[in-house]
Amino acid sequence: MTNSSLQNLSAPRVSRRGFIAGATALTFVIGGAGVLSVSQARASGGNAALEPSIWLRIASDDTITIVFPSTEMGQGTSTALPLILAEELDADWDRVQVEQLDFDSREFGNPLFGGVLYTAGSTAVAGYFDPLRKAGAQARRVLTRAAAEHWSVPADSVTTGPSVVVHAESGRRMTYGEVAALPDVSLEVPAVTDEDLKPQSAYRLIGSDAPRRDIPAKSMGTEIYAIDVQVPGMVYAAVLRSPVEGETPVRVDEAQALAVPGVLQTVTLPDGIAVVAERLEAAFAGRDGLDVEWSEAAPARAFDSEADLADYAAIAADLSRSGATWHEAGDVNAVLASADRVVEADYLSDYAYHAQMEPMAVVASVDADGEGAEVWAGTQTQSWTMRTITEILGIEQERVRLHMMTMGGSFGRRTALTQEYVRDALLASQAVRRPVKVVWTREDDLKFGAFRPAAAQRLRAGLTADGRLAGWHHRVATPSVIAFFNPLRWGQVDPKDIISMRGSESKFYAIDHFLAEHVITERRARLAPWRAIGASYTSFAAEAFMDELSEAAGADPIAFRMPLLNDNPRGRHLLERVAEMANWGGARSGDTALGVSFAGYGDSMAAGIAEVAVDRESGQISVPRFWAAVDAGLLIAPNNAEAQVEGGIVFGLSSVLKERITTRGGEVEQNNYYDYEILRANEVPDIVIHLVDGDARPTGMGEVGTPMVAAAVANGFYALTGQRLRHMPFTRDRVLAALG
Predict the structure, then answer these.
(1) Nearest-angstrom CA–CA distance, 424 and 426
(2) pLDDT tens sequence across 70-94
(3) Nearest one of 92, 84, 82 to 61, comparing CA atoms
(4) Which residues, 6 or more positions from 413, have their beta carbon under 8 angstroms from its beta carbon?
């Protein structure tokens, strides 16, 4: 990294409100009557700039800077969100710069999270779609009104093109930058309504596949992640954590650690001991030299993934133990009692690790007076990162200079209310009075990570004499994820845990008598949201069970589902389309078979078909081809949407075929990618995706690709072998056991 890069990283970024110091700025605020009061002021010695709202500014050189309120972890929203505003602004996209929001301001918060700055759940585009469009339309109106006043023409006679205002009758034109440089203006502009927004037919940027802004730096290796940050005077810390959650050191011998050249000191943390050194290698060597005796009384020592999942299964099967109702319609118990036939099945899923490429890393520098700090971190939430900093140090937010870094993947890993890696860097910096970078190894990330919960599910359904689905009961025995990773939120929503239960509501099917309930079990591991959250395992169970019902009814799996989609024409279209793509029902060789699944995430829907093969000697399942038809509303950037669905499919395949965390005696048994395997490049199938570009508002692409995958593979395996797989992942030993 160059010296200039070091200087840029160590300097606080200019705040939104501080930007216009030394510049001419045109600003407006919403008055009590819903009127935008616009005024212009000039600070001495500055260039002209127009700042129509908190969301953007337009410089006299025609540069347009748009605030990006989410965080970037590879999903592409650092392009998609500014693009939405730029569309309504009628901006020249080549003149747009994107500015990461680096502080916790609820003015920028995601409406779908109650104003919290939180990037998760495929909500960024869906949540910010309306606010950003309106901000762009407001800014465009400010530009046209200012130009009209300057030209002394009616405001409705002024139009816009890419970053220009035009008065067609006189042939006059001004660039947006020239409008920003106009003399003092004072006027009032009505707030925009939905009727003032562009119709979809007029979109120039949305749907155009504008190149993603984060790709060039990533492709050239110049993107700076938290793990890359270097600042003057920085030292490194490696943390020896208690091997079992809740244990504490009862004896510490640090002599060998302190004898390592470059080691400066140790720092006691809430759940471990940090070794601080001049070099990262020395910090790791020093950590290896610590001799620590840990307590042996924590309840977590009893955690055993195999025994724990067996307990969950027994709880799911015990119908006398009621659960928290997640979704209910009709009277399922009465319908099941009178059904011509009742079908039951149990499904299991193991813990899963996020497996993101960049392990936890952060740089923290506590001010000499202890009343402020500067932090460089890649997280999914400005709000909770800022909360972690201010609570750990007991300082005011105004004294924090936060730098939200691009993440090398996350998938829910960096969402916790209190982020332990940020906490540890702050405490270490406070102790040594220097900037400290904390870096986790891959082994740290696996051993001390937070996981998708293990779950046991009991499904029961009633069929009529003519094979129609009459009632559906879905019991999910799993802990509350929210209660662990965000207890404040759990206090507000208890007992409704969307992280644990999403997908079990089967919202896309019309089932008159339905009950999904959450039997909340004891937590037996650290937990966190995981891509597609609960739908990653609830949709597996639901759609695999749907195939079991179709067999019991003597129906084709797709034909069985179709009547349930009579009230969902968009869903029917997806199922019909994917069947056509995969030539469902056509002749095939005996080496492969097809499995179908219809699932979704939030309001986004996907139908998938997997072509499945199996090596009967080794038990290895392979998926040569996968077809998907997806409807997530309006496509902001079609190429990126396709990439997100493709990534979700690969993520789902990796999970269902390989990924498994096991614990024994409270400790995670896996260490690195060699024993926590993920899908390899040569195992990725040919993927064909059909995206519906509808006129409905966007509903999220980041996670919709994952929920359909596991059941499609399970159903394809059954079509090929006549045997059911009901425990995810489908490891070789489980496959061989199923094959007998």
Answers:
(1) 5
(2) 999 999 999 999 999 999 999 999 9
(3) 92
(4) 354, 356, 449, 450, 528
